[in-house]
Amino acid sequence: MLPVLKSPQESEERKRGGRLPAGENRLTGYRRWAILIIGIGGLALGIWSHWRTGTTGEESFGSNSAFRVGVVMMAIWLALPTLNKPMRWLPPGAAVLCLIAVGAIAAQPRLVVIVVPAVGFLLTIGWLVRIFQVSRRR
User: Fold this and answer.
1) Which residues fall within 8 angstroms of residue 52, CB to CB, at 6 or more apart?
2) By the 8 A CB rule, do 39 and 5 touch?
3) Which residue of 36, 87, 102, 107 has the fewest CB atoms within a 10 Å radius of its CB?
4) In 80-138, which ranges are continuous DSSP H helix?
5) What are phi and psi of 17, to 5 degrees?
6) CA–CA gap between residue 51 and residue 42 (Å, rounded)
């Protein structure tokens, strides 16, 4: 039989006789860190190889692929804690907007120049609307 790996958090909770928080199982923290490292590595490799080889032929295919893997892994890293509890700091429409932006950038990396400012503008407008709605309710 294979040994069961336990995270340090799980071991400490077991010693105190307590339970882990909802959504925290063994090695969850390690998976999250691994996804983050792979995402940053993919982004860095894609940017570095695009800078070193340029935009010609097969070299651009490799750099674009690495960049897309990095973008997707960063999106997974961002969404991982929301499997059991929603993010309270992010408005409901902003998550959909960011998901659409990630999809557009993954499909056509040149759109990053247009998509990032547009998403920032829309998030700022949404933030301002929420502030004025809260102040009007009081």
Assistant:
1) none
2) no
3) 107
4) 92-107, 112-137
5) 80, 10
6) 14
- Token pair of 108 as six digits: 């056509």
Residues 6+ apart with CB under 8 A from 10: 20, 24, 25, 26
Q: Is 80 within 8 Å of 32 (Cβ atoms)? A: yes
Selection from 55, 36, 34 nearest residue 46 by Cα? 55
Walking along the chain (138 residues) 10 residues at a time, the average pLDDT comes out as: 52 57 58 88 89 75 88 85 60 80 88 92 86 70
Q: What is the distance between the alpha carbons of residues 69 and 79, in angstroms, rounded to a whole number?
A: 15
- Spatial neighbors of 29 by CB under 8 A, at least 6 apart, are 7, 9
Which residues contact residue 98 at a Cβ distance below 8 angstroms, ignoring those fewer than 6 apart? 78, 119
CA dist., res. 91 & res. 3, Å (int): 42
User: CA angle 85-90-91, nearest 5°?
Assistant: 105
